[in-house]
């Protein structure tokens, strides 16, 4: 019996009503209700509403039952993956929402001084809490004593306390950290949980948002017995500038070495594993790479603050918007022209998800998301021209364009997703003081790509976006407001 069916049965018992009386109260078919109760079929949207009314459910109970129905309809794995993606979008939006002042100084948190090295060059630590404190102390020592802190690690991605500790120590710090890690995932997850690689992406992407962390992550699929790739006596380890920490699989035992020979041995293991793993989170700040100007692939979906106006840009408009005082203006123009030609040809049926709130902001200031030293803002008449052309195409069903339901999903102007075959791109553009930060994260792990494919394919039919009619009505309201302002 499924969770949904079990909950329906419990609610019917709790109601004290018979199947017949519930059918009469909710004005629903009795035989259909019986089949829903036994799990033979799932209720339609209208039937579900009548059933909730008949059962006299509270708003919280109705939401719970709705979630169980969605889980039953799409499968537990897809359900949890979709929830994880929503959490990821909102987490990134929250982390890019606020300016973090770089004023914090790194100090030793878990010890008043750097421990002297043991005479035999090693120290054994037992107990999970003791191991964690020792790892945090080693991280503190690296941050505190090294001019150029560097950490290389092969640890479980879900050892949240360590990743959170690095994040908290570096957030707002004046130090810069080079961080490399290699994480492992099962190639296939059970149906009752989200993909582990997707959960890792949600956790580890936050490190990529820190301006003072040069973060690169790689991954491999672990062996069928669940054991990591062979890398010496202990499967997990960290390398700081001056020490090696090996960790048991259960993270309950650690050995700290200050031995140059062993250090080099594990540094070799790390290099070998780098060569035999795949990029997981690839970060770039190169604008040509961020917007894939040289090798852009057909885009299936973009999820961004303002609608994709690219298909309406004429060559004359592009030349006019480009700031000719920009040092690389000619090179940029030479790359942009063929890019937009290719984009218009390849992306006619791309799904476009945007925010009405940020569309209004565009109508106010005319800026698209490029550094302001590179482009001029669009003139008011040009903004109206662009939005009116979008409206014409939507009414004529020439575009698949949907506005975000702001009541269901929080996404700010810093976040942009682009789904291309075979890559998922996360493009970030946000302010740090007077500077606009641009970052690009490219993801190619198969399970994450599959999860986002499912999410994006379902998005137009979900309550995370407004319907086509609601989207058109929202655009029409903006056109009316700014047409009056122009007149």
Termini Cα gap: 64 Å
Biggest sheet: strand arrangement: 1-7-6-5-2-3-4-8-14-13-12-9-10-11
Q: DSSP helix count?
A: 17
- The secondary-structure class comes to alpha+beta
Largest sheet features: 14 strands, mixed
Helix content: 40-55%
SS elements, strand count: 14
Tell me the fraction of residues in β-strands, as a range: 15-25%
Mean pLDDT: 87
Radius of gyration: 27 Å
Global geometry:
flat
**Low-pLDDT sequence parts:** none
Characterise this structure:
- With 487 residues, the protein is an alpha+beta fold.
- Helices cover 46% and strands 17% of the residues.
- The chain has 17 helices and 14 strands.
- A 14-stranded mixed β-sheet has the order 1-7-6-5-2-3-4-8-14-13-12-9-10-11, with helices on both faces.
- It is flat.
- The N and C termini lie far apart (64 Å).
């Amino acid at each position: 019996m499924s969770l949904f069916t079990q909950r329906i049965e419990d609610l019917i018992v709790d109601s004290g009503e018979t199947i017949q009386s519930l059918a009469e109260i909710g004005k629903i078919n009795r035989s259909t209700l019986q089949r829903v109760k036994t799990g033979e079929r799932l209720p339609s949207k209208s039937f579900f509403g009548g059933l909730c009314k008949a059962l006299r459910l509270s708003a919280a109970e109705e939401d719970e039952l709705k979630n169980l129905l969605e889980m039953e309809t799409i499968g537990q794995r897809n359900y949890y993956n979709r929830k994880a993606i929503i959490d990821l979008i909102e987490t990134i939006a929250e982390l890019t929402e606020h300016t973090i002042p770089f004023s914090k100084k790194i100090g030793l948190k878990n010890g008043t001084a750097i421990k002297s090295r043991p005479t035999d060059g090693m120290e054994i630590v037992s107990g999970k809490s003791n191991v964690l404190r020792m790892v945090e102390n080693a991280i503190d020592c690296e941050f505190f004593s090294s001019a150029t802190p560097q950490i290389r690690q092969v640890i479980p991605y879900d050892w949240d306390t360590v990743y959170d500790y690095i994040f908290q120590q570096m957030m707002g710090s004046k130090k810069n950290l080079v961080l490399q890690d290699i994480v492992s995932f099962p190639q296939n997850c059970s149906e009752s949980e989200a993909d582990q690689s997707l959960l890792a992406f949600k956790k580890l992407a936050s490190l990529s948002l820190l301006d003072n962390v040069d973060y690169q992550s790689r991954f491999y699929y672990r062996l069928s017995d669940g054991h990591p790739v062979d890398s010496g006596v202990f499967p997990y380890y960290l390398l700081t500038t001056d020490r090696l920490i090996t960790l048991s699989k259960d993270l309950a035992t650690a050995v700290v070495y200050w031995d140059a020979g062993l250090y080099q041995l594990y540094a070799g293991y790390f290099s070998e594993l780098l060569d035999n793993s795949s990029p997981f989170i690839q970060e770039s700040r190169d604008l040509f790479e961020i917007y894939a100007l040289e090798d852009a692939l057909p885009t299936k979906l973009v999820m961004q603050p303002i609608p994709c106006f690219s298909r309406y840009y004429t060559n004359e408009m592009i030349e006019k918007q480009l700031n000719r005082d920009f040092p690389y203006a000619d090179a940029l123009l030479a790359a942009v022209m063929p890019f937009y030609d290719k984009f218009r040809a390849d992306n006619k049926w791309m799904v476009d998800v945007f925010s009405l709130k940020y569309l209004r902001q565009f109508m106010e200031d005319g800026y698209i998301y490029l550094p302001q030293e590179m482009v001029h803002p669009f003139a008011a008449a040009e903004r109206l021209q662009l939005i009116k052309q979008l409206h014409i195409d939507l009414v004529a069903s020439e575009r698949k364009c949907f506005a975000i339901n702001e009541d269901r999903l929080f996404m700010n102007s810093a976040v942009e997703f682009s789904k291309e075959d075979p890559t998922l791109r996360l493009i970030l553009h946000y302010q740090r003081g007077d500077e606009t930060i641009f970052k690009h994260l490219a993801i190619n792990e198969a399970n994450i790509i599959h999860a986002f494919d499912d999410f994006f394919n379902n998005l137009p039919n979900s309550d995370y976006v407004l319907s086509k009619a609601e989207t058109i009505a929202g655009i029409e309201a903006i056109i009316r407001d700014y047409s009056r302002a122009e007149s």
